[in-house]
Amino acid sequence: MKRLALMILAAIVLTSCGASRKIVQKPVQTYVQPGSELLNMPNTIRSWAMGESDSEMTARKKAMVSASSNLSILLNSVVTSTIDRYCIEASTDDLTVTKDYFSEKTTIASNLALIGAQVIYDHWEPMNAQGKYSCYVVLEITADDFMKTLMKSMADAKNKNVKVDEELLREQLLKAINAAK
Questions:
Q1: Residue 117 — pLDDT band, cuts 50, 70, 90?
Q2: HSE-CB for 178 with a 13 A CA cutoff
Q3: How much of the chain, in percent, has pLDDT values that exceed 90?
Q4: 98-111: per-residue pLDDT in tens?
Q5: Which of 21, 85, 126, 135 has its CA 20 to 30 A from that of 5?
Q6: Is 34 within 8 Å of 137 (Cβ atoms)?
Q7: Quick check: helix, strand or coil at residue 88?
Q8: What is the model's pTM?
Q9: Distance CA 166, CA 107 (A)
Q10: Cβ(168)–Cβ(82) under 8 Å?
């Protein structure tokens, strides 16, 4: 009798271990950050950032500083790639002088372009449960604006020995901008 009871108990334990339970799948909720859809535009360098604070003004400043910093990093990457591509494509006699010259002029143009970056998106979220405001910002520098600034800085240059093929430079800039996305 004990044996029969033990076998029944063992059968119950073994069959209940693999009992199927209904698993309820919770739907996945996705959240798209406001303004992030604006980042992929051709021939533009754009940067998105969010700032959060208990003050609206501070939240906006945090977003602007972060977006400017990100834009600076992107612009530096694009400019470095443009200089490298241009120097490879353009057949110059003294590659070192050309690279140094472009590095100097693009640094000046980059700083001016960052100062003139346009805010194309500025969105506020009301105070959340933690008592904080959120601000979303997208900054933009267009290829045309950067080229104008760069060509102006090169026109003011003292070194007239370096010849610049503006069309080739523009072409390499556009390739670098679109490849950075």
A1: very high
A2: 8
A3: 35
A4: 778 888 888 888 98
A5: 21
A6: no
A7: helix
A8: 0.73
A9: 17
A10: no
